[in-house]
């Protein structure tokens, strides 16, 4: 990239972070825009978009979480004409992606955008994107501390090796639930990968898997990753962010406060590990889960919008 363009992009990223800081400080992390393919603005750069292609094989770990061929957009936006500049950048980026000759028919375009910024929604809806996933956050320093007692017969404890099989069944149930909602694909290797992942999380000295037991039965679980280890941490402008990554309560044990007790225990562990905020991902159209996270004090920070490309566009 020419030095002049590099400077313009750096100034745009700076203005973007400042604009986001006014809208939502938690969402004001710097976007990575090394060499954007789309640049909007005559005199000053008002918007820029980088398109990154990620390609995965069907048996890879990443394939569990989305399309095999992903076009990931990163946009920076500044200036008073923000809505118009966003629309122009998106139109150009989508056009570039759709016109590419790609053999795969399992393709998506996605963009993660601050949930609180109204400039994003209209253009994304007009271009056929759906808000699929939300990253929510809660401030653990001000959220109520202490553990919420779960009503008998359930009790909360740390999962051990002897619980791997039962936790795997719940993790599979959760994955199927998300697939049913259209948020995750179904892949042939999912069961094996989930088993390995849950067994490793239970054995781990840093991650935690907490379970709700009713007698010898595991009726719910939650997984928590401490700050510094949580991969998600750099997506938000927060220090010491822990990650609550999976939560499911068996249908027969629901609406009795089991999820509340599990999340409360996970928050307690994250606090002990130095977390100041906790993050969670949930599907935007998983309405019981969305109300639950709000009830637990979370609010949306980033929304991932996705458009599937139909085979005729592939
Ligand atoms: C979402 C889920 C974990 C809730 O578990 P639960 O033990 O029933 O939840 P709780 O009894 O602790 O309720 C906590 C809050 O969640 C909300 N909630 C839970 N289920 C709800 C429902 N069916 N409709 C509306 N709100 C609901 C309520 O706000 C509730 O608080 P309140 O009872 O004080 O009003 C459970 O329904 C589940 O496992 N669903 C499928 C998997 C899933 O969606 N997991 C979340 C992934 S991010």
UniProtKB/TrEMBL annotation:
Gene3D superfamilies, sorted: 3.40.630.30
Any Pfam family hit: Acetyltransf_1
Limits of the N-acetyltransferase domain: 154-314
Protein keywords: Acyltransferase, Transferase
Any coiled-coil regions, as ranges: none
Protein name per Swiss-Prot or TrEMBL: Acetyltransferase (GNAT) family protein
Organism: Actinokineospora diospyrosa
Species classification: Bacteria, Bacillati, Actinomycetota, Actinomycetes, Pseudonocardiales
């Amino acid at each position: 990239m020419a030095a002049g363009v590099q400077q313009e992009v750096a100034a745009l990223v700076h203005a973007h972070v400042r604009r986001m800081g006014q809208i939502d400080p938690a969402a004001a992390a710097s976007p990575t825009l090394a060499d954007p393919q789309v640049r909007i603005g005559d005199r000053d750069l008002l918007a820029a978009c980088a398109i990154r292609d990620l390609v995965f094989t069907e048996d890879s770990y990443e394939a569990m979480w989305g399309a095999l061929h992903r076009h990931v957009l990163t946009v920076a936006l500044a200036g008073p004409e923000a809505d118009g500049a966003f629309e122009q950048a998106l139109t150009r980026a989508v056009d570039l992606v759709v016109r590419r000759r790609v053999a795969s028919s399992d393709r998506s375009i996605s963009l993660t955008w601050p949930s609180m910024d109204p400039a994003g929604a209209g253009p994304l809806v007009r271009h056929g994107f759906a808000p699929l996933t939300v990253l929510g956050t809660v401030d653990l320093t001000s959220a109520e501390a202490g553990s919420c007692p779960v009503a008998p017969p359930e009790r909360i404890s740390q999962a051990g090796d002897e619980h791997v099989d039962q936790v795997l069944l719940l993790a599979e149930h959760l994955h199927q639930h998300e697939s049913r909602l259209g948020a995750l694909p179904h892949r042939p290797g999912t069961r094996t990968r989930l088993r390995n992942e849950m067994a490793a999380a239970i054995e781990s000295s840093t991650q935690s898997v907490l379970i709700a037991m009713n007698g010898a039965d595991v009726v719910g679980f939650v997984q928590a990753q401490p700050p510094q280890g949580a991969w998600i941490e750099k997506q938000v402008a927060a220090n010491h962010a822990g990650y609550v990554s999976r939560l499911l309560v068996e249908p027969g044990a629901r609406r009795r406060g089991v999820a509340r007790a599990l999340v409360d225990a996970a928050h307690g562990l994250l606090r002990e590990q130095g977390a100041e905020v906790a993050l969670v991902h949930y599907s935007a159209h998983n309405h019981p889960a969305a109300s639950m996270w709000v009830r637990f004090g979370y609010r949306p920070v980033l929304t991932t919008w996705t458009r599937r490309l139909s085979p005729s566009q592939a």
